[in-house]
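Good morning C.,

I know you're traveling, so I'll keep this short. The sequence:
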Amino acid sequence: MKSAIVAQGLTKKFGDFVAVDNISLNVREGEIFGFLGPNGAGKTTTIKMLTGTLKPTSGKVQILGLDMDKYEIEIKRMIGVVPDEPKIYEHLRGYEFLEFVSAIFRINFSDIRQRVEELCNAFQIDYLDKLVSEMSHGMKQKLMLVSVLMRKPKVLFLDEPTVGLDAKSARVLKELLRKYSNEGTTVFMTTHILEIAEKMCERVAIINRGRIIAEATVSELKNTYKGSLEDIFLQLTAEEDIREIVENL
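The tokens, ready to paste straight into the viewer:
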């Protein structure tokens, strides 16, 4: 199977601080890949380098066979990114934001209007006339999801995509991601909700202090370490015993 996302020796330094330390990844087309780690481990920095919004200090990125160094614009047309914090122009109304995104990607909005309506119905979005400044975090998150999914990108990068979503919308998103994966879309996602990773991801990589400390299928990790993905994650990343911490409180 072809590779959709390839990172080789990816490193990012901010001064003397090494945020991401010489990591390599190979994610196949159509795969749902989980990228897990505690806060500050380097997940978001890695996504920013993989999507071309942050230049690595060293290392290479290839998306769908294209080098990020040479084909950044072409790559950005083919991928979709949902950041952990939805950053949307506050002065726009919801429908204006969607039209703005379609114009950036040179898509005729009338051609995708039906798809936008279907996505809005699925996520229960009935507030496209509202100003973004009047929307809650969850409302913005759903609007951001629609702005990405309406384009049907070949590779999806999702940074904590279910944060702020109600239970029904989170379920809709999970089912949609499975459907898109079956159709060949590659999904690279971070999540702190390990049950989601355990149920959805074919493979996961665990990053801690900027380094990948484990990478395997969920079943392989369970066979090796014995226990749930949450137990394994804490075993590999927790530096203090949780019971001892709780007892001391």
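Safe travels,
E.
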